[in-house]
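User: Second chain of the day. Same drill as before.
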Amino acid sequence: MQEAIKNYLSKHGFERFEPKAVLFDMDGVLYNSMPNHAKAWQQAMAKFGITMTANDAYATEGARGIDTIRQIVRTQQEREISEEEAQIMYDEKTRLFHEMPEAKIFYGVRALMSKIKTSGLQIGVVTGSGQRPLINRLLTDFEDFLDINHLVTAYDVSEGKPRPTPYLVGMKKAGNLEPWQTVVIENAPLGIHSAVAAKCFTIAINSGPLNDEILLAEQPDLLFDHINHLSRIWFELVPPVKPNNIKLGSDWEENCQTIINYMLTYHRRPSKHRHEDLQMLNWMKYNKKRLAHGKMPLQRRKQFQQLLDIADKYRRINQYWTLKKAQKMAATKVENNKETSVSES
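Assistant: Same format as last time:
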């Protein structure tokens, strides 16, 4: 693992590797959806006189659908089509895809995301998809790890993969990060090419039928045959963050995200009873007062409200468990009193 990091730094001329975010591709990385996509592509394109194999679908996965269609029409039919015409063809592919069984989340994805949070990193998704149902499913399935502000779709870019644009946008959404602060997890040649072109530390997962050599030709920094294998060794890449190692700096947005990550990782709010939490707690109190008095800049309010919502969620959870614990203690006390009364009589 350390050798891969060393090679990455040398390849791009960076001085350090300090990841703050992990950007996932969606199809073939989070969901085992590529078999369905391959079938839908083949069936839809056949209706328009285009031959597309399963390997073609895997090889072009990650690109915007209309870009794939325009390229394949250019190659097979030697003509140019407009985005509007390509969209009509892509809509047919989308219709067929949604008639198929819902793809399952890959085993190991949730465990990996939990470890990433424990490492103190943000999580984002960068997908070439523009299908609203899939985007909504992402936000539901991974609501503990992902929000819409860290999601890049076909609607956010004018140039899709293999251009670096999608991952550049992903880094921007994560807080204007540098490439050496970003880890990308991809499964397709075009997506790997895009991430490497953006100079991110790129991990390839070969979840499809393509040979490893096809993925390695795009020069990822690491290659795994299953995302669960990456999950097993994750802490070798980015060690877990201990609560007492969390310190706030001068950057407001970064401080806010640090506290959000803390709560999502340790499933609790900062507490006045924990010395290591006092800096975060005081920061929250100060900013709550600024918000209440209308002194918080408008551009900060949305992120801070997200923090308050998460804090309220864990306040209610903690109150619930405190109540259950008190009820259990009270019930135990009653039982003990009964036993004492019986023994005395």
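The chain has 14 helices and six strands.

User: Great, on to the next one.
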